[in-house]
Design a protein that fits this description.
With 244 residues, the chain is of the alpha+beta class. The chain has 3 helices and 10 strands; from the N terminus they run H-H-H-E-E-E-E-E-E-E-E-E-E. The protein folds into 2 domains: 1-47 and 80-108; 118-243, no CATH class. It has a 4-stranded antiparallel beta sheet with strand order 1-10-9-8, with no helix packed on it. A 4-stranded antiparallel beta sheet has the order 2-3-4-7, with no helix packed on it.
């Protein structure tokens, strides 16, 4: 390796292994690190010198020549130095670790603007829960209900304005606070009951702040002042819950 490549490798290792590591968010840097690690490991491979051939063959005494001389293999595999094996193992571990980090980071970052927020749940579809018909008036089929979370339920449904489009809508509420009155209507005794729809590449999302007097907070284990955001992840058909 050249001096410049060694300096570049040292910088990439710092970005990968230091407490302030940030290389997981830079796929190009990850690929370059793997390339330089492999090149550094290759440079460690030093072939062992072949034994020098004697100037003249020396014949053994006749009484010491064995009856049969075992035939040796013409070709032998080169032995790897112990340091080379360690470097190759380390390079493989770096590749596996960084690949895992990239997958995790890409899966968590549903919304690129979740500054300071923490993902706390992913809600999968729950086919056992039947969404109240009063919440899906005018929608025929293609309604998905998701797992319960801290008293909340979420359903996703086609947009009223773009039934054939890719942007879906999302409704978040607490069944405990929903009063389904007669005649197909309903009333809600909470503060946060809202249907939001996605638009273009923006997913449907809903944000709330659970104050001391917020009715929904009483159904949860969260303290007053907790901010929650529900985001519809269309690629995985899940609801991602963030806490801010």
């Amino acid at each position: 390796m050249s001096t410049d490549e060694e300096a570049e490798l040292a910088q990439l290792r710092h970005r990968a292994y230091s407490p302030s590591a940030d290389i997981a968010s830079d796929p190009d840097a990850v690929r370059r690190l793997v390339e330089l690690e492999a090149r550094a490991a290759a440079d460690e491979r030093v072939p062992e010198p072949a034994p020098a051939a004697p100037d003249e063959p020396v014949a053994a005494p006749e009484d010491e020549i064995p009856d049969a001389i075992p035939e040796r293999s013409r070709f032998t595999l080169p032995r790897l130095r112990r340091s080379t094996v360690i470097m190759l193992g380390a390079a493989a571990l770096v590749v596996a670790t960084l690949a895992t980090l990239l997958v995790v980071v890409q899966r968590v970052q549903t919304d690129p603007l979740q500054a300071g927020a923490t993902q706390i749940a992913r809600l999968a579809p729950d086919p056992t829960f039947e969404a109240p018909s009063s919440l899906t008036v005018g929608i025929t089929g293609n309604v998905t209900a998701f797992e319960e979370f801290e008293g909340f339920r979420v359903i996703s449904q086609p947009s009223y304005f773009d039934a054939e489009g890719a942007a879906r809508c999302m409704t978040v509420w607490q069944p405990e606070l929903l009063d389904r009155a007669g005649g197909g209507g309903f009333s809600y005794d909470g503060k946060f009951f809202l249907t939001t729809c996605g638009a273009g590449s923006f997913p449907a999302s809903m944000t709330m702040l659970l104050r001391e007097e917020t009715p929904e907070r009483a159904q949860t284990d969260f303290p007053a002042g907790t901010a929650l955001q529900f985001v519809y992840d269309a690629a995985n058909n899940e609801i991602v819950v963030f806490r801010g």
